[in-house]
Amino acid sequence: MTILPKTKTRATILAAALLATSTFWAPAAFAQDSKPLVIARNIDLNSLDPHRAFCDTCQIYNSSVYESLLTLDKDNKLIPLLASKWEGNADQTSFTFTLDPAAKFSDGSPVEAKDVKWSWERLKNLKGSSSFLMDNVADIETPDAHTVVVKMVAPSSEFLNIAAAPYTAIVNSKVAAEAGAKADADASTTDNAEAWFLQHSAGSAPFVLKSYEPNSELRLARNDKYWRKAPALSEVVIRQTKDAVAQAQMLQSGTADIAMQIDPDTAKTMTSSDIKIETVPSYNFIYVALSPGAKANKVPLTAEVREAISLALDRPSILDFTIGDQGQLISAPIPIGFPGGSGFEEQPYDLAKAKELLAKAGHADGFEMEAAFPGMNVYGVDLSLLMQKVQQDLAKVNIKLDLQPIPFANWRERVNGDGIPMTAVFYAPDYYGTSQYIEYFGMTKGSPWARRAGAEREPSVLNPKESELYKAALAASGDEAAKLWHQAGEEMIKDRVILPLVSPNLILAYKSDVKGVRYSACCNLPLAEISH
């Protein structure tokens, strides 16, 4: 995820699409493996229904069993998948996709425009966690069996990236409808196919669902009717393994081929020559957030107070304390490597200025502040330890934090209810596109974090510039859009509501005879590229 795909002209789009066909889906001619590939990871599945699924493991599952119209190559360039070519109009309000006539579902039936229309309307109308991806879609037309025309409510230079997200999976509409799946406007109340999807799949991808045992394992089998080159692996087993130590033990004992959630400390203990450890930058980050409108605030979290809190955070020390050289600092809530996400200045550490601002705000003697957060370890960072370091930093300016680690479900209820004065949490991308960060973190009316920051009780946190930049970026493309996303990132830094801290590296640990393992911006771990 390094650059925005070039979409300046129709010719550029089509040329890139056709050129890329061979580079992604025609790697070396793998010999097919009869031995199952075993992956050890904490399975966080919330559903196997591709339009209800929303998690890290869901990205792996959806992209292995279902296909989107487009996908990303290793350099985050858009390339064909179900669509052989595509084009957008000049003002980013209409996109036309031409489906590959060779595309077939796992039952051998053709993938047609009606399946795309049905799938995307179902995604939108289920009103699930990933339904927001279709919020800007006004209408989907299918002039023939292989053409899909998508009309947008407002300009969206991000829609091609959205069309590469695994949550926009194309489902065999006939098979799913027979199982109770609905795509109508009332699908959120009439669709009853989720249980069926726990035992069946209806996609066109290299694998099909073989079995699923909650809290135990997810098993995929090769799709023998796959319409492109067959995957090397005959079977993939994702085995429930909660923590990094247990995953490492499985890898070292030979009972797993890949361990997906190894932290830096555990990685140092894995010295076998039969194990390969690869560290790559991730697009995930951990941040502190402030809520000026939280009901539990003991003092007003004005712009001056928020700036003082930010200045009191010794970010290099926080990085060293949490992950050391296994990650990097991040200044804006946009991942480094996403369009507009690079080039932000490192945030300053200045205790003298922090004290000066607090005195100016009438808090020279400091104040107490509630800090509730999920009590969990994520991306190798223990949030409790992180917040203890934040507590120590803020104590130097006489801000006393009351640390409250709580279960994630309780945290979600509190942060979305009365608000939490200070919290810490994490974010991983839902697709390769920067608009999601302004939509989620921007202080724009109705955004998730504007609500959590208590904008209704404290409207001063709203930043109208972010709304303007958001609209302008969606109407632009390429480098122009990236500049606008960067400007929006600068505004979010000035808000000092979201205070990004660290972006942990991702550690890929696998047996030395396993080939093709990589971290993907769209799909997490592309199983179709792996052999052993």
Automatic annotation (TrEMBL):
Signal found in the keyword field: yes
InterPro entries: Peptide/Ni-bd (IPR030678), SBP_5 (IPR039424), SBP_5_dom (IPR000914)
The entry's keywords: Signal, Transport
Pfam families, A to Z: SBP_bac_5
Domain named Solute-binding protein family: residues: 77-444
Principal place of residence: periplasm
Gene3D superfamilies noted in UniProt: Dipeptide-binding Protein, Domain 1, Dipeptide-binding Protein, Domain 3, Periplasmic binding protein-like II
Leader sequence segment: 1-31
Compartments (UniProt record): Periplasm
Signal among keywords: yes
Protein family according to the UniProt entry: Belongs to the bacterial solute-binding protein 5 family.
Protein name: ABC transporter substrate-binding protein
Organism: Mesorhizobium shangrilense
